[in-house]
Amino acid sequence: MPKIQVGDHELHYERGGSGEPLLLIQGMGGTHVSWGEPFLAPLRESFDVTAFDNRGIGLSAPIDGPFTIVEMAEDAAVLMDELGLESAHVVGISMGGMIAQDLALVHPERLRSLTLGCTYCGGPGSRLMPQENLEILAAGMASGDRDKAIRASYEVNLSPAFRADESHYAAFHEMATSVPAAKRTIELQAQAIFGHDTSARLGELATPTLIVHGTDDGVLPYPNAELIASLMPAARLETLEDVGHMFWWEQPDRSAELIREHALAAGRA
């Protein structure tokens, strides 16, 4: 299994496809399998795609101590160094979008384009998870029953319209159980998110940026996208009507095409 040493910890990564380099950064509790093959396959047709597990999660080495979003952004930069990627198109979703914001702010020369999906910038006007959904997730995790915890995550992360087809749950359950996601690491990721605030600096970014967000996002509500777009006047906001937090899971083909068009247009520019 491919791993790279980053400081005092190891990161697992998967790489495939051909074309310009594309780096995918996952969110809280997410791993390389959380992208799903229906989303990854069309991207690999146009890009050299790298997806990795953030520190302490999935197949990356376990970690005990606290960390910040800025430190995880530096993980991504070191991973790029080790893979020989001088620059790349970067896609970050949810917490991964926060990591991507800091990566772009600290290392703007490393990004060919930036896609921020279902994410949050902190500061005035930002919104974290609604209390009722937080309670659903907390109850699932506190139950000690893995299947109840997965079902709670499914309910919060996917829209009612998507969940109306019960056949969708099997693929989500398989993804959620295929690689480990340590509860302690997820708690540390949540702590890192609470400390994230790039709101006063987003206007500095000149990287061509696409913002993607579903209107039925139950984790980081849609107004976060409108706020980020207002702070980045040159960015383009793509609104996905009646789509939940995991938009790339609900609409993999459309999501991949939005990223492809944005990245290739930035490359031509």
Structural summary, described in words:
- Helix 3 links the parallel strand 5 (88-93) and strand 6 (111-117).
- This protein has one domain (3-268): Alpha/Beta hydrolase fold, catalytic domain (Rossmann fold).
- It is globular, with a radius of gyration of 17 Å.
- The chain has eleven helices and eight strands.
- An eight-stranded mixed sheet has the order 1-2-4-3-5-6-7-8, sandwiched between helices.
- With 269 residues, it is α/β, with parallel strands linked by helices.
- The model has no long low-confidence stretch (mean pLDDT 96).
Tell me the count of domains.
1
> What class would the helix/strand composition place it in?
alpha/beta
Give the number of DSSP strands. Answer: 8
Question: Would you identify the CATH H-level superfamily?
Answer: Alpha/Beta hydrolase fold, catalytic domain
CATH topology: Rossmann fold
Radius of gyration: 17 Å
What's the CATH architecture name? 3-Layer(aba) Sandwich
Order of helices and strands: EEEHEHEHEHHHHHEHEHH
User: Can you tell me the overall shape?
Assistant: globular
